[in-house]
Amino acid sequence: MKVIGMISGTSYDGMDVACCEFEQVGDTVEIKQIGFESIEYTQELHDLIADSMPPRPVTMERVCILDTHIAQEFAQAALHTMKKYNFQPDLIVSHGQTLFHWIDAAHKAVGTLQLGEPAWIAEETGISVLSNIRSRDVAAGGHGAPLVSLLDHLLFNASDAPEGALNLGGISNITVAGKGLTSIAYDIGPANGLMDAAIFAHTSGARAFDESGLIAASGVIDYALLAKFLDEPYYSLPAPKSTGKELFHLPYIVERAGEVNTWNLPNLVATLLELTVETVARDVEKFELAKLYVAGGGSANPVLMARLAQRLPNCEVLTMAALGIDPRAKEGVTFALIGFLSMHNQAGQVPSCTGADGERILGSLTPGINGFHLPASSSVKPVRVRII
Question: CATH 3.30.420.40 region(s) of the chain?
């Protein structure tokens, strides 16, 4: 089965599009990554999303505009990728763009909102679209995150020793799995999200992220400020747990570091990078992991990766490329996998990782130009994946 997986993460820098082929052989799902594209939002849409992220108030008009424009850009990204790789999918899985992740006072996820109306994608491409991927897990008592733990669980659940998979997007999340273990996954805290917010605000939108970690590399860590950032109650909450822009946003930085015009940007970014490193390292050490496989945009930041390796001398820090997966494409591949499983009546999450009451088939299906064509259900539950 050919599937395109699409997602724009909490950094909202653009759309990741992964073209994959799947085949189930016994209890193993074989995955072949055909192509991958990372396509930036138009500047206008990027700035509109940035101006709509928590804690900014928005109108329903703004929500409707975003829901439409995000979907239209997702549709064009899918068409571009299909043409480039001569790839005709049986299904498109669109995660869309998270605008809000609702966590209540008891630190329980009670709602999640991803925008990008799937009808626009189905209309433009002619392909059926699976969307609204997270909500069923939340309705079942889970956090709807981190859903990348599905791929991690299937990769590592037979490992002799516990292994970790780390995703460094706007938020950092980790999965720990191994033979004889109950897999666990959760959001650790901010990864690129706070750094991006600081850079965007301080440069008045001229720069959106720290390319190659050059800003952080030119700064000096402010350890007194770092201690303020580390004194965050979220870090001590038990897993499973999830977080996002509703907590870690620009006012969160201002509250601890002062007004934007008072910042030494290189020093602040160096401090925020160290915040990511330290929060990750503490959890890696807690599980005594020997290997950590890193994916997401942060895996392309050489300063962040070098600092992680330095901070974790007893853990080998690798990227997902060591397993045959493009680190940038991991989330796209995961959502494509979820689509493959949903279409075969198989669960697309791991309850011990998300906190849901049990396994659930994920997503809502929008028909393509030729209506629904559902494959036969699989009678064998997949327990592992193999990367081709």
Answer: 2-141+331-348+359-387, 149-327
Residue linked to tokens 């993460």: 9
Interval 287-300: pLDDT, tens: 999 999 999 999 99
Can you tell me the distance from the alpha carbon of 170 to that of 173, in angstroms, rounded to the nearest whole number?
10
Q: What average pLDDT does the segment 368-378 reach? A: 86
**pLDDT per position as a tens digit, 46-60:** 999 999 998 899 999
Q: Evaluate if pTM is beyond 0.85.
A: yes
Give the pair of three-digit tokens for residue 20: 């994959």
Q: How far is CA 381 from the centre of its chain?
A: 25
- DSSP, residue by residue, 187-218: EEEESSHHHHHHHHHHTTTS--S-GGGHHHHT
CATH architecture of 2-141+331-348+359-387: 2-Layer Sandwich (3.30)
365-380 exposure pattern, b = at least 16 Cβ within 10 A, e = fewer: bbebeeeeeeeeebee
